[in-house]
Structures are given as C-alpha cells and as structure tokens.
Amino acid sequence: ATTVTLARTGQKMPLVSFGLWKVTNEICADTVYNAIKSGYRLFDGACDYGNEKEAGEGVRRAIVDGLVKREELFITTKLWNTFHSKEHVASAARKQLQDWGLEYFDLFLIHFPVSLEYVDPNHRYPPAWWGDDKKVHTSNDTIQETWTAMEQLVDDGLAKNIGISNFSGQSIIDILRYARYAPQVLQIEIHPYLTQEPLVKLCQVLGIAVTAYSSLGPQGYIELGMDKSLPSLLSHSSVIQIAEAHAKTPAQVILRWATQRNIAVIPKSNNQERLTQNVQCIGFDLSKADMKTISSLNQDLRLNDPAEIDPRLAIFA
Ligand code: A2P
C-alpha cells in the first residue's frame, strides 16, 4: 500500500510525504515544485514554520504548469497554540488558506494540546511559543472548545479532515467523549529511538491514522544545531547492515520501518537527491527480523518536548 485510508471520509492519505518544517523561505517554492515533480503529493505545513506562502507558490506553479491537479494533492497544515479559542480557529484557518492560495485543506491538525494567549497576526506572524516578553503565556481555552471549532471547519468546507498532533492517549480518549467528528489523524514524533508502540496501537484500535514526524530521529535536530551529542541513527551499525542487505540507504530503511507499521512519514529535505531517495522508500519489504532489530533500538528518546521551553508544558509527562 502507498496510502492509508482515513476512516470518516475514506480519503486516501499518502504514506510518504514531504514535511515543510525547517524549509527556508528562499528555497521553499522551488523545493515544493520539485518535490511534486519527483512524485510527492502530500505536503505537511504549519503556520509557525513561516513558509506557507512560499509552499503555496510552489503548489500554484505546479498546477499552472500542469504537473498536478489540486484534487490530486493532499495539503496538511496546523492550528497554532495562540489560536485555540472558538473565535480564532476559523480566522486562523482562513488566513492560512489565503497564504497557501487554497480553498480548502485536506487535513487541519491542532498542533499541540497547549492553549496560549492570543497574539494578533498583525502584531506578530509567524506565531511563536513566546510573547514579546520572551515568556510563555498559557490560556484557559479547553481542548473541547477548540475541537468543536475545528469540527465547524469541516462543516464550512475549509478542511476535509481534522486531526491532532502531539496528543497523549488519554487526551485522545477524552476528545472521543464529545467529538461529532473523531480525529482522523494523530501526528507524533516517531523514530527507532522513540517507537511509541502503545500510542500507535491505541490509534490503530480507534481507527485513527498515525503520521510520524522526525522519522529520521536526531537528524532533523542536528540540523538545528540543538544537540551535537545526540546518538546518530543513520550511521547506526544495525541500520547500515540492514540497508546493505537490501541495497537501500539507511534513511530508506528507517522510513520503510515506519511505513511497514502503516505509519505515514513526512521527511524534509533541502536536497533534490535525498528528496527523491525518500519518496522511493517503499517498493521493498523489511523482514520480521529487520523490523524487530530496528524496533529494539528504542530508548524512549523524545527530541521535541515543549517542557524544555517551559516546565508547565509537560504534556507528555
Ligand atoms: P537535508 O534537508 O539536508 O536533506 P525532519 O526529521 O525534520 O523531517 O528532517 C529530516 C532531516 O534529515 C534533515 O536534517 C534532512 O537534511 C535530513 N535528511 C532527509 N533525508 C535524508 C536522507 N535520505 N539521508 C540523510 N539525511 C536526510
């Protein structure tokens, strides 16, 4: 399979897609255009990535040049934490649609289960975790209020599917108690150092599709210069051995390990050769033993933890 089928709408979501986090503004439009040329159909954005206009420009050019039709693309983006209250959800989504130059999103996710005080986009955009005083200001909006406003986006045709990101199992169960539309997708950090088996299993039981971010593990954080002492995954001897046995690259093996678990991946690359390599990570199968070897690298290593920004944001505790 090259897609996962979303439960409520039956829409097919590609298993291998392109993540826009850390794609710089200068190259974003060309990167999206070239990715479409290389076969990517899903792009995963967010307003705090600060490149939605440029990504939209790449999409627009690809459509004008006849490479792809809008309905063949699957555009995902996310609601930032400062827009959680019911009067801000739709206006945030409309602004993002305008930036992309689109009439609807295929998937709109709540980025984090964290509500922050509203900051007017005319004052600061793209949004951030911090206020002008460099402090985090949490707000009292409940996830129920936000989810109800997200459901309205579906009713109003702004989003075909809605979902969540960085939510725990307990918070998913909670949403299901009041949801008119269950979340279609959960996007979380997953890689061989953070295999997330219980949460993935819960989603599979509940019929919620799972997307992995940071699927190449520390690579995307080494790029940010966050921590140079992080253990490498692409040069791990077990990964290299499996890659050699299948005549694939270590990155392809790690991406295949996820997709073989029916988990969608969204690796980012600024490099055309790696971008092509990544989209070609299906079309071979890892053995049960390979899958087990890679899963056994788990060390519950969470690289994206908002508690490092502010201890009150310990959402995974
Ligand atoms: P680059 O853009 O230079 O290719 P993320 O985890 O946020 O999706 O980021 C992926 C990280 O892994 C980026 O730093 C990216 O750097 C790198 N990367 C992407 N594809 C490959 C690949 N096939 N081989 C090695 N590194 C890769």
UniProtKB/TrEMBL annotation:
<dbReference type="GO" id="GO:0016491">
    <property type="term" value="F:oxidoreductase activity"/>
</dbReference>
<dbReference type="InterPro" id="IPR023210">
    <property type="entry name" value="NADP_OxRdtase_dom"/>
</dbReference>
<feature type="active site" description="Proton donor">
    <location>
        <position position="49"/>
    </location>
</feature>
<feature type="domain" description="NADP-dependent oxidoreductase">
    <location>
        <begin position="21"/>
        <end position="298"/>
    </location>
</feature>
<comment type="similarity">
    <text>Belongs to the aldo/keto reductase family.</text>
</comment>
<dbReference type="InterPro" id="IPR036812">
    <property type="entry name" value="NAD(P)_OxRdtase_dom_sf"/>
</dbReference>
<protein>
    <submittedName>
        <fullName>Aldo/keto reductase</fullName>
    </submittedName>
</protein>
<feature type="binding site">
    <location>
        <position position="111"/>
    </location>
    <ligand>
        <name>substrate</name>
    </ligand>
</feature>
<dbReference type="InterPro" id="IPR018170">
    <property type="entry name" value="Aldo/ket_reductase_CS"/>
</dbReference>
<feature type="site" description="Lowers pKa of active site Tyr">
    <location>
        <position position="78"/>
    </location>
</feature>
<dbReference type="InterPro" id="IPR020471">
    <property type="entry name" value="AKR"/>
</dbReference>
<keyword id="KW-0560">Oxidoreductase</keyword>
<dbReference type="Pfam" id="PF00248">
    <property type="entry name" value="Aldo_ket_red"/>
</dbReference>
